[in-house]
Q: What sequence folds into this?
């Protein structure tokens, strides 16, 4: 399920509109929209697009995070802070319905256990990005959390020399939907290999995702 848009802005707008639709559907069907936001820089455009959308049932939206760095909520590296600054302070989601991962907590394993305990039975949508090494959430190639069987894992990432909190693949694949927001030419080659079933990229283990792509990231796919 590949959706390709001309620019990163158009991709973000489309993902924001899909978010609004999914939220309305979930709230009318189940009374709440359980969504996990992702980190990195790509979602920033989507968060900004979301702010301006009408008819989003924000009072029934429950916000989670699919991963977090081992930092506090005020750190410029915090995925929570990105969502807080770019979206959550601009829309009326009740504070009690915003659940950040405690990246600053030590040991990180305690934060992973605590977060797993507060997750809803099933998420409606998990928003994900993809790194240019094919990682998604904080499931990096060659790291232990790739095999984790719980819902949330503390994951040591040698190449970054840091610990991360991350959803596991069982958690990601148990959600109703998985959306992968990938833009920029820098992701194009890995994306082409993933789509062709080549390489052994963690993102390939995300089951039947909806891909929101811009033309630059999707360029090699057009040559098929
Ligand atoms: C993180 C993200 C990560 C991100 C990719 C892509 O904590 O870094 O959750 O999985 O989605 O690294 O990041 P960009 O959007 O910055 O390219």
A:
């Amino acid at each position: 399920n590949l959706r390709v848009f001309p620019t990163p802005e158009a991709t973000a707008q489309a993902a924001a509109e899909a978010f609004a639709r999914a939220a309305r559907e979930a709230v009318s069907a189940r009374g709440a929209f359980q969504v996990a936001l992702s980190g990195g820089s790509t979602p920033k455009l989507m968060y900004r697009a979301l702010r301006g959308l009408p008819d989003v049932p924000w009072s029934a939206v429950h916000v989670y995070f699919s991963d977090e760095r081992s930092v506090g909520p005020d750190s410029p590296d915090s995925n929570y802070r990105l969502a807080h600054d770019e979206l959550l302070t601009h829309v009326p989601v009740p504070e009690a319905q915003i659940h950040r991962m405690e990246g600053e907590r030590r040991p990180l394993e305690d934060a992973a256990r605590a977060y797993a305990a507060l997750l809803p039975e099933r998420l409606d949508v998990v928003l994900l990005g993809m790194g240019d090494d094919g990682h998604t959430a904080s499931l990096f190639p060659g790291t232990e959390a790739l095999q984790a069987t719980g819902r949330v894992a503390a994951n040591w990432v040698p190449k970054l020399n840091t610990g991360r909190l991350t959803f596991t693949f069982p958690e990601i694949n148990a959600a109703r939907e998985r959306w992968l927001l990938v833009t920029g030419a820098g992701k194009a080659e890995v994306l082409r290999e993933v789509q062709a079933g080549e390489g052994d990229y963690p993102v390939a283990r995300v089951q039947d995702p909806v891909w929101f792509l811009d033309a630059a990231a999707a360029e090699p796919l057009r040559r098929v």
Summary: The pocket of 6-phosphogluconic acid is lined by residues 38-42, 67, 79, 129-131, 135-138 (CB under 6 Å). The chain has a mean pLDDT of 97.
